[in-house]
Amino acid sequence: MDVDGESTSAVATEARLIPVLSGRSKAMYQFTQQSLPACKPVLTPAWVITTFFLVGALFIPIGLVSLHASHSVVEIVDRYDSECVPDLFKSNKVEYIKDMSIHKNCSRHLKVHKHMKAPIFIYYQLDNYYQNHRRYVKSRSDRQLLHGLQHNDTSSCTPEESSNGLPIVPCGLIAWSLFNDTYSFSRGTHKLRVNRKNIAWKSDRNHKFGKQVYPFNFQNGTLIGGGKLDPNIPLSDQEDLIVWMRTAALPSFRKLYGRIEDDLNVDDVVVVNLLNNYNTYSFGGTKELVLSTSSWLGGRNNFLGMAYTSVGFSSILVAFIFLLLHVRNPSLNIRAVC
Amino acid sequence: SANEMLPCDMVLLSTSDPTGVAYILTINLDGESNLKTRYAKQETLARTPEKDKISGLIKCEKPNRNIYGFHANMEIDGKRVSLGPSNIVLRGCVLKNTAWAVGVAVYAGRETKAMLNSSGAPSKRSRLETLMNREIIILSFFLVSLCSVVSVCAGIWLRRHRDELDYMPFYRRKDFSEEKVDNYNYNGWGMEIFFTFLMSVIVFQIMIPIALYISMELVRIGQAYFMIRDSQMYDEASNSRFQCRALNINEDLGQIKYVFSDKTGTLTENKMEFECASIWGVDYSGAKASFQGNQVGYSIQVDEQVWRPKMKVRVDPDLVRLSKSGKKTDEGKRVHDFFLALAACNTIVPIVTATSDSAVKLIDYQGESPDEQALVYAAAAYGFMLVERTSGHIVIDVQGERQRYNVLGLHEFDSDRKRMSVILGCPDKSVKVFVKGADTSMFTVIDKSLNLEIVHATEAHLHSYSSMGLRTLVVGMRGLSASEFEQWQSSYETASTALIGRAALLRKVANSVENNLSILGASGIEDKLQQGVPESIESLRMAGIKVWVLTGDKQETAISIGYSSKLLTSKMTQIVINNNSKQSCRKSLEDGLIMSKKLVTVPVATNSTQGTSGDFTSPVALVIDGTSLVYILDTELEEQLFHLASRCNVVLCCRVAPLQKAGIVALVKNRTDDMTLAIGDGANDVSMIQMADVGIGISGQEGRQAVMASDFAMGQFRFLVPLLFVHGHWNYQRIAYMILYNFYRNAVFVFVLFWYVLFTSFTLTTAITEWSSVLYSVIYTSLPTIVVGILDKDLSRMTLLKYPQLYEAGQRQESYNPKLFWLTMMDTLWQSIAVFFASLFVYWESTIDMSSIGDLWTLAVVILVNLHLAMDVVRWTWPSHASIWGSIIATCICVIVIDAVPTLPGYWSIIELAKTELFWFSLLGIVVAALIPRFVVKIFAQYCRPCDIQIAREVEKFGNFRDLRGAEIEMNPIFDHPRR
């Protein structure tokens, strides 16, 4: 796809028509006569075949590398929402979860199949939970999160705008429904080191959630939606809230809970003591605990690798078909000349 | 009074001329620029209204459109006088050479013939835009169905979860903040569905590309700018640029199938020029060779003033020398007689006009026939200057010597005799008859016994003149003996005073005197075609455009122009329809149809209409005149005429009234889908220009009416070729691509929004920020399509002019049709699926938040849409580079700026996202995967079924002679399908 010679010849003929032209007026003339110097790529078979081969040559390695990265990630997923309900309440989970008097303790035993290198990311995963529901995502006040009670207009936070006549900080459905299951991990007899700091974006902590804004009148209403916040800690340090407030894009999502800073070996059994507080039963949602290592590409997901390899292979295929067509029938039209 | 335009149609009563003659200029009515005569009736011409009252009653027909017909009678002083077309002066005519004229207004205001002949200016809309509106209706069906799907699904979802809604954390129907527990923002099931529908309309409304209308206007302005600035459409003679008067039909110029052209002033310059003469068997055609600019021209001295003819004529130096030599030699005598005949045998009125230099006066020859004008100018140039004409005598200045000739009798031109004669009493008391006329009629009355070889030589010259496209006239004379003269005079007087059958009697008298003539010679007059007209018509024909010539001229003139402009060729079979009644019209139409079928079916079988050669094996030309059209248009015969005309390669309509021109355009326009273009320069072309899909005005001599009514105006007919082939083609390709691209651009965005809505429990959440949604069609993607729409060229000007066949791509609607629309929509669907579902699967069960994935989609869609455009750009100039890559960069900047606002939920997400490798790999994968199918389809289409444009583009790039040949063979031959 080279620069054509036509433009130069056209320029030459036009230069003959208008003999004396200064640089500026020549440029203007070229512009008005629509004869600006131009590159006009023509898709010749050579170009096309090369392009497809190049796409293939680029995409297949990327695909294989990403597949490898994905496979190197070790992931333990444990769904506990139904298992952690006592048999007594199996038929009426909603009543169980709403009953504040029942202890929600639950312990799970996770077996490690493969060596997991620290840091091991702890996620909780919710399914069928529409954190992207329009009613839900609108019900927040970013100004209040930054400025606290100084910001009065929290009309966007309905129905969790105020309680008992007093404003709520942080207001809105999102904050109200803060996830409040807690996990602690032990291997054998000693606890695993879990780091719960730095799970939220630094930018959010520094600029989006106010350092002087403390929770106020939060979860004081008739209906408790989820976790409570320590009113003595500013919002910028309430990392669980910050993570939760980054509403998930898709109805099946994970959120970072913390990191285990010990390696896990094969056949280790991790005992998880959790408090099953959060109500996903009322709408048929599920809760999972995920322990996962991480690769350079993030978590375990084969799709990207598969997609890259298939695109790569199909472009190689197209290149071959085209090559075949070209070789078998070079005189199809004048392209054969080039 | 003189030089004033008449405000109404009126019957002449009397004029300043004692014989009741008024000279009028009808240029605004029929485009003819010569003077015409109108007469007041004998009964009224003597009365001047200032002195005595006239009382009478005029009964006339109802107002109608026929400008060549008028029937009325006038009762005056108890007598009944019939009035005809020669007694009426129509609105729009200009009185010339007549100091005053008095008349009775018969039609006024809207009832005048001129007004009835002008149709109201219709608003024009381009073909492409009409088609586009159809597609937009389809798009709105898409929109409605998307919205319905969303609202139905939302309804089902609400129904299924109706028991859970109260406490569902992300729905929370109940509001506990007040004392009374109430439903919060919930209006019942049905209303929720309804509101969902309305909201989805708001979210998906970009599906209807409103911005397209604005960008189309901008693109058209840009295209108009380039058309106006095109130096190849700049007329140096009149110093006029191309004018774009209508801004919304630029692209129609690329789809023209029929061109309706006026003749006078459009094809021709409306200037007759004496080119050559054959006198006494000797050809004097050296005038062509003689140098033009250096001549002074012949002039005479009258009362210390210099009188010279208004127009200069190129002269043959030999002939000048001969004419100056006087009657001494035999040759000189013949030349003298020849020019005397030219100067005398006509109905031209010389008018002396003053110039800025008081010593110089110009003689302007005015008359009905431009041929006569040219002849008189020629005679003047050779020293035989007609100075004065009254009804009784003429004064001719022969080589500086004033001679007075008595006009004893004048037999006017009529179409039966095809000649005219004048009987002159010469200063030497001899009586001579001078005759001039068409060669066919003249050779029958020439005395061949005298100078047979001279007759043959003249015939040979005539043949060569007419093959050069010149209009020929033969001149003859003879002296009358006293007895002959007396005999003629008595019969002439009887005939001219006869009440019944005067015309026939006069013709008989004329025939009796016009015989046994000795041949003087022949003249060749060039009806000067505009520069490049034959070539342009040739190119237009090669591009599959049918050229119809509609003219107010006589049939003979029209045909001769047809020949000289290469519209008609000697190989063509002419079908002439020239009738006076409906029955005979029907008959000749049927005959013509049979004949054309016979002639046309043969070549269709062999189909030898090869690409560039452009010769049609058995072409048929239809010549039809205005009188026949009166009986054909607006009746059931129209259908037959259309069938016949569509079989003919050339159609010539002569003697047509302005509205008939429009009628013919409408005939074609209403019966085919093909685009029509009308080109004309006079006020008589206005209705045709307005009727056609595209109207072009020639800004020539004939006033401004045509230009005012036109959509485009230009200086010369030949500019039609670059206008259609270059600009029309480009405009069509550009706008067509732009419309499809805009549909795609908006739809792909809407589909990405739509897919996401399916994963938000149908609640119209948009991951893409509202700001980005708004800016999408304003900043992110708008500029490249406009720049490409203005600047991209699929082929160079040279190629387009070289291969007129490339124009047919527009006629075949190759760049915009339903098939392309649906293909584009399929592509759109795939691309949106690639964008959405690839990222969905990559980020399923991940920690991705809404703003981050929204940013990914924004960037992916914008890059995709701009690369898609970049893939289709043919010619990369710096503005296209700047706009396409600039838009992508501008989008990145905008996204970063939007994400830098801490009070928006998406604060800093693009930065956090850009830190992950996954984002970059998804972006690359999405864009490539989305574009690959399109690329593959495009390449296979180009490789296996290349279109003409594609081939020409490759020829342009790699072409050598061999390739050109190859390309031509693949070009589709011209088919003349009569499409309905």
UniProtKB/TrEMBL annotation, chain A:
Major subcellular location class: membrane
Keyword NAD set for record: no
Intracellular or extracellular location(s): Membrane
Alphabetized UniProt keyword annotations: Membrane, Transmembrane, Transmembrane helix
GO CC, alphabetical: endoplasmic reticulum; Golgi apparatus; plasma membrane
One protein family per Pfam: CDC50
Coiled coil: none
Transmembrane intervals: 46-67, 303-325
Family statement: Belongs to the CDC50/LEM3 family.
Name assigned to this protein: ALA-interacting subunit
Organism listed in the record: Escallonia herrerae
UniProtKB/TrEMBL annotation, chain B:
Catalytic activities: ATP + H2O + phospholipidSide 1 = ADP + phosphate + phospholipidSide 2
EC class (word): translocase
GO annotation (BP), single: phospholipid translocation
TM annotation in the entry: 136-158, 193-214, 747-768, 774-791, 820-844, 856-874, 881-898, 918-937
InterPro entries for this protein: ATPase_P-typ_cyto_dom_N (IPR023299), ATPase_P-typ_P_site (IPR018303), ATPase_P-typ_TM_dom_sf (IPR023298), ATPase_P-typ_transduc_dom_A_sf (IPR008250), HAD-like_sf (IPR036412), HAD_sf (IPR023214), P-type_ATPase_IV (IPR006539), P_typ_ATPase (IPR001757)
P-type ATPase C-terminal domain mapped to chain residues: 707-946
Binding site for Mg(2+): 262, 264, 681, 685
Cofactor(s), by name: Mg(2+)
Subcellular location: Membrane
GO cellular component term of the entry, any: plasma membrane
Topological relation to the membrane, as annotated: Multi-pass membrane protein
Enzyme Commission identifier(s): 7.6.2.1
Protein name as annotated: Phospholipid-transporting ATPase
Protein species of origin: Escallonia herrerae
